């Protein structure tokens, strides 16, 4: 897949060769659909091998044992839950519902016209940074950024005559690698703050009551700058030069200027988007506000449907204005084409859903995570040494448990008390966890949205495999890790609070 325009020299030559090896090895693996099928069988066999292994949950004191699926009961579970595992695959519903809205905007020509307007009005040098920045900021909409930004980034880069996969990876790096950064508070802040407070209460109940949702706000806001700068540099200096010139089927397409009809369509679509957005704002503070925390309101629980509406309405208005949609049959046909384009992802979701469900049912991920936490507590490290080990263990566990909150449920009761006893605050411990969790999200196939990113990439290169995607994302992962650790230690040396009233030291 790699197609270098020119031979790199020096350190980049060595880096490109290393990434080529990773890509080659990774692409020797079966197709993602078959790979998840094989992984599902491996999980079943592994559950039999490690049956009987158990750990004690540090939160509840409950004994958790590896559940053997290679039994009659396990076979019954596999058959009885096959459909539920498919339907319950977390990204499936979100992806399909969101893509109905995005697909209509794409089918009617709204996306293409919007991209043309962007290409002709925004300096191209700023687009990479804007894409990475938007990806990192998208965590305010929970996981919606995974669905919306990578395909739009690819289309935008293609419109500029750049490699579409570079746009896709830049957006993916921002969304996933930058998940721990944001200028605003998100639902993740609320969840992690609650878990951190529960863990801190085992040492100091009074202090635990002072832990706020904004506990990591300062560091997260500064991290937005880091993620944007580093992600842009990696895209422009490593990923895109390595990819070379794009030579796909639509590589020669040129963007002409917007026609009068397109301009009129964009005007009415823009007005409809603004009106729809204002309605959504009203709903978020009105009927969908709820009685509790705003970040846990019915509105935030409905963000997938909100995004669907925000794309669907302007797409519909654009189609009607440009006379692409003249009746209900045209609308139905466009929506059908969108779902047809997702058929490969739907098939992939079936096998991935089985694998994820089996892995969760066996409890192997939980056993691995708790053992990793116990290993850290027994290392005898303190200070910087402990922080580095903490980061490495969290990064490793991230390959087995993708959910940020699920990992912190297990790790917080171990890490937070240890760090408090060493003089580090629970808020600072959470910062370390969040950056460690973010940097390996983009290189683990167990990330729930990883198969979807591959499906998006295959629109531009049908032969792309897991190895290709991982080889493109590793430079981001390494660069984020190194720069974030440097920022963390500088933060410590300067003694800057990680959030309002949240000092580094306990």
UniProtKB/TrEMBL annotation:
InterPro entries: AbgT. GO terms for biological process: p-aminobenzoyl-glutamate transmembrane transport. It comes from Lentibacillus amyloliquefaciens. GO terms for molecular function: secondary active p-aminobenzoyl-glutamate transmembrane transporter activity. PANTHER family: P-AMINOBENZOYL GLUTAMATE TRANSPORTER, P-AMINOBENZOYL-GLUTAMATE TRANSPORT PROTEIN. This is Aminobenzoyl-glutamate transporter. The chain crosses the membrane at residues 33-53, 86-105, 126-149, 217-235, 265-283, 303-321, 342-360, 380-401, 408-426, 438-457, 469-494. Keywords: Membrane, Transmembrane, Transmembrane helix. The keyword Transmembrane helix applies. The keyword Transmembrane helix applies. Pfam families: ABG_transport (PF03806).
